[in-house]
Amino acid sequence: MNQAEAKKWFLKCLAGLGLLLALTAAIVILVDPYFHYHRPFPFFSYRLYQERYINDGISRHFDFDALITGTSMAQNFKPSQVDALFGTNCVKETFSGAGYQEISENLDRALSRNRELKTVIWALDYNGFFREYDWVQYEDYPTYLYDEIPSMPFPICSIKPSFTTVCWQTLPPPSPVHRALPWMNTPPGSRKPAWTGFFFPMTGIMWT
Predict the structure, then answer these.
(1) Which one, of 57, 16, 12, lies nearest residue 37 by Cα?
(2) Residue 204, by phi and psi: left (phi above 0), alpha (psi -120 to 50) or beta?
(3) Is the pTM of this model over 0.90?
């Protein structure tokens, strides 16, 4: 292979890599499994998991005037019941194992982005009163999703669920559930979480 052929081969490889990256970015932005760039599309069914990645996107792009928040103790609270009782349009943003600081910071972001938010239901765990104010459960958080700086669509944590969501569309859709929560419908005597939560934009079912 002479120098001209080697250069041509290198440019082809570079173009192919660029095309692959562009295609991956387009899929991540289009599917947007964490609702970071836009609202969910009506032609996709989304599986709901990884609350710390999804909740900020809910605050950014969903229409609501009431919010349920807290730790896993609030995961069984039903926004549909809040709507029925108080005439609201409620969503839920819970954080399993969270401290008060993490929940408070998310609430600050939700209030700053949604001037219509008037009602907040916050489940206060008693053990939170005995911890330091800045106690955290984990060391790493996806803070790159929380600020106002546009995030690049290439983190592995976004690529994998994007392609999973696309593949999910080829399977028969599951029955809509009214409690999209990790510890619901768990077999008796088992501590294995039952991840049965899905969001159907066509029917408007969202953590109901």
Answers:
(1) 57
(2) left
(3) no
